Amino acid sequence: MTLHANLEVVRDGFRLGAELAVEPGEVVALLGPNGAGKTTALRALAGLLPLSGGHIRLGGQTWDAPPDVFRPAERRPIGVVFQDYLLFAHLSALENVAFGLRARGVGRAVARAEAARWLDLVGLAEHAKAKPRTLSGGQAQRVALARALATGPELLLLDEPLAALDAATRLHVRAELGRHLHDYPGHTLLVTHDPLDAMVLADRLVVLEHGAIVQQGTPTEVARRPRTDYVADLVGLNLYRGTAHGTAVALDSGGTLTVALPVTGPVHVVFPPTAVSLHPENPAGSPRNAWRVTVAGIEQHAHTTRVRLDGVPPVLADITTATVADLRLQPGDELWAAVKATEVHAYPS
Amino acid sequence: MTSTRRRARGRLPVVLVLPAVIGLAFLLVPLVGLLVRAPWSTLPERLAGESVGQALRLSLVCASLATVVCLVLGVPLAWLLARGDVPGRGLLRALVTVPLVLPPVVGGVALLFVLGRRGLLGQHLDAWFGISLPFTTAGVVLAEAFVAMPFLVISVEGALRAADPRYEEAAATLGASRWLAFRRVTLPSILPGVVAGTVLCWARALGEFGATITFAGNFPGETTTMPLAVYLALESDPESAIVLSVVLLLVSVGVLAALRDRWISGPS
Predict the structure, then answer these.
(1) Taking phi first (over 0 means left), then psi (-120 to 50 degrees means alpha), and beta for anything else, what does residue B263 get?
(2) Which residues 188-207 of B have a C-beta within 8 angstroms of A?
(3) Residues A257 and A192 placed together within one structural domain of the fold
(4) Do B172 and A74 touch (CB under 8 A)?
(5) Same-domain status, A222 and A253
(6) Which of A235, A259, A294 is the last residue of a domain?
(7) What is the H or E stretch that residue B214 is in?
(8) How far A79 CA lies from chain B's nearest CA (Å)?
(9) Domain shared by A32 and A173, yes or no
(10) Per the domain annotation, does B188 fall within a domain?
(11) End of a domain among A202, A235, A268?
(12) Any domain includes B24
């Protein structure tokens, strides 16, 4: 059962036109700057905003197809995690999670038992009686996720689920959210303006600009072949999965990177293309990470030149036009790429 | 430590302070006078006395029933004004507040001409169901509800407009109908506003005079509420009038105390 959505929404001089397909078990990230129409798309899928044209279909069921069909939010099998969670302040965490089941006609005892199971699953069993205002940001986010998932929705919608968290909490909550999304069998659409969230959590990125899709593909594809300057800026991240032992991270795709802060276990390793320097010979001195690469492609972007390099691991480098001229870069050239350990960040995954 | 408080901006001008003090006295002295004249020693037995007790009971019953009527009709009306997608909402909102500024006597006259035995609706009520509302206890409840409902509607509507409608959307995504979302999510969140509106509405109903005497008349035990009894007693039994007045005064102070956070403490 694939979710097919051809979203057309026109209002107040803004026009959204985006065609999406989400497979069961797939996590699609809708990525874009503020005002690109991400939240409009999410609200249309949720049934909080009727389409002006197009359709939303899941399996054999039509959710929205103007002018004839419109199923309101309460009659769609969805779960939504809102940006500021919107937990009901007068209800306990348990009652919040049980709300959706109760609203869908499940008996009180069964709903509460199921809600307790979900709270346990997100690690908040001991906070069942807590009111939302006594919870920390990370805990509130987990209650919101449990509340959205407790009804067993076909489509899970997440609106900037990590945006309200501080940097330290964000790391843990992101890793945990990733695990829950991995276990969730339904369709997931994640709206975010943070490329790292999108690349870590999603199987596929859909980049939205000015109400239209400018690019889509797996995170690696989009990062390696950005179609617009905006995408290059936004998604231009070197991101790898790997396993860390202290400061050494063995990458799943081959190769090893050294990080500054020791970590252990499965991690995401991230550094920006601007952190990569290119050298004709093996550079001596401070860089802890240096490996042989071959130039696969050179693209000129607004202010920098992005070089795609094959190697173990493959890597993107942003260098100045002057460096391009100095090194006389051509596709097929063999070089050394170097990254300082302090520029490489590892996040537990 | 010095006992003289230093002032940064000199003395307060007499031309402002003098009228202010007179104004304060003008508001407080009559109330104090009432308390001074009250027959405190015989108060309990007078309260239990037949005419006073009767008026007190009738007043409490009618004001409470009128408040129930206002809640049942007024909360949905407030919801419609705050959330409903109805055309001419601004005009509706203005119309709802008319009874607030209308002299209550005019309200009573209007009710009489609509619901009276020869009235627009009243003649049908009388002909079809044999129901006659004017000059009955039900008429008292109607007159009080007519005058008091705007207080509730305005209070609840303000609370609704301040409440974030996105919580209702969150409830909808969880499968809740609009009615369920209103009952389980919105209503609990605006409860303080509803309580404040209810108290205000009840107090207004309790003190209602003009519309009541016009629409429901003055029949002891049936339509003579406390304010009417006070007015009547002034000629025949001034002491009873004072007792009733003190009771009404205490109720008003009680209402103020209950709402002190919302109405008295201004911006600090």
Answers:
(1) alpha
(2) 188-189
(3) no
(4) yes
(5) no
(6) A235
(7) helix B210-215
(8) 6
(9) yes
(10) yes
(11) A235
(12) no
What is the Cα–Cα distance from A140 to A134, expressed in whole angstroms? Answer: 9
- Domain span at residue A259 reads 238-348
Number of domains in chain B: 1
Do A258 and A197 reside in the same domain of the chain?
no
CA distance B229 to B225: 6
Q: What average pLDDT does range B145-167 have in this prediction?
A: 94
List the beta bridge partners of residue A346: A269
Q: How far is A212 from chain B (nearest CA, A)?
A: 26
pLDDT-derived band at B266 (thresholds 50, 70, 90) equals: very low
| Cβ pairs A/B, distance under 8 A | 60
Both A198 and A262 in one domain: the answer is no
Structurally, chain A folds into a number of domains equal to 2
Whether A302 has a pLDDT exceeding 80, the answer reads no
- Strand, coil or helix: A7: strand
Residue B57 at interface with chain A, using a CB cutoff of 8 Å: no
**Partner-chain contact B173 A46, CB within 8 Å:** yes
- For chain A, how long is the longest CA-to-CA vector? 73
Residue B256: pLDDT band by 50, 70, 90 thresholds?
confident
**Hey, what are A266's tokens?**
């499965």
CATH classification of the domain holding B156: 1.10.3720.10
* In a shared domain, residues A162 and A305: no
Q: Which of B169, B172, B189 is the closest to A90 by Cβ?
A: B189
Residue pair B244/B40 in contact by the 8 Å Cβ criterion: no
Q: Between helices B89-96 and B137-162, what is the axis angle to 10°?
A: 140
Contact between A40 and A16 (Cβ < 8 Å) = yes
Pairwise CB contact (< 8 Å): A48 & B172: yes
Model ipTM over 0.90:
no
Question: CATH no. for residue A325?
Answer: 2.40.50.100
A103 → closest Cβ in B166, B175, B188:
B175
Q: Which CATH number goes with the domain that contains A181?
A: 3.40.50.300
- Phi (first) and psi of residue B3, to 5 degrees: -85, -25
Return the ∠ at Cα A329 (arms to A327 and A332), rounded to 5°.
Answer: 130
Q: How many CB atoms lie within 10 A of CB B122?
A: 20
**Residue pair A207/A37 in contact by the 8 Å Cβ criterion:** no
